[in-house]
Amino acid sequence: MGWFDRLFGPKAPRVQPVHVDDENFVAEVARSTLPVVLDVWSPGCGPCAMLEPVIMDLAAAYQGHVKVAEMNAGEAREYAARLGVMGTPTVLFFKKGREVTRVTGFVGSRYLHEVIDSELIASPQGSPK
Predict the structure, then answer these.
(1) Which member of 42, 104, 123, 125 lies 3.0 to 4.6 Å from 88 by CB, making a disulfide possible if both were Cys?
(2) 24 tagged catalytic
């Protein structure tokens, strides 16, 4: 263990978001047994690049509880259009295959955690499932 790990604690393992495209959208998002956070991004998008580490952290933090996925809008044109994605980044939140909310543009980690905890994980009474 290096001095950096002793000072800040060991680094969390990297968990990759699930790659979603037109071919696997139904299996990975619409039929997912877990709630899904879908980051729709595009190449060359500055805010998308800023959001990438946040999405990676969400994938690690919610592993096994929420499926965190990413979709390149240019490679998944059919579903980007069906979902009404007008700009990137757009983060969509799905529960039981249905979109419950979305955020367009860069937002911070704290806001995304709050949306996941309140919209995807919390039960109707407000306590986690």
Answers:
(1) 42
(2) no
Catalytic residue among 15, 18, 34, 45: 45
Q: What is the pTM of this model?
A: 0.86
- Asked whether residue 4 is assigned to any structural domain, the reply reads no
In which domain, by residue range, is 56 found?
14-121
Number of separate domains in the chain: 1
Q: Does the active-site annotation cover 8? A: no
Domain at 101, CATH number: 3.40.30.10
Q: What is the pLDDT of residues 82-99, one digit of tens each?
A: 999 999 999 999 999 999
Picking from 113, 71, 105, the residue whose alpha carbon sits closest to that of residue 88 is 105
Residues ≥6 apart with Cβ < 8 Å to 109: 54, 57, 58
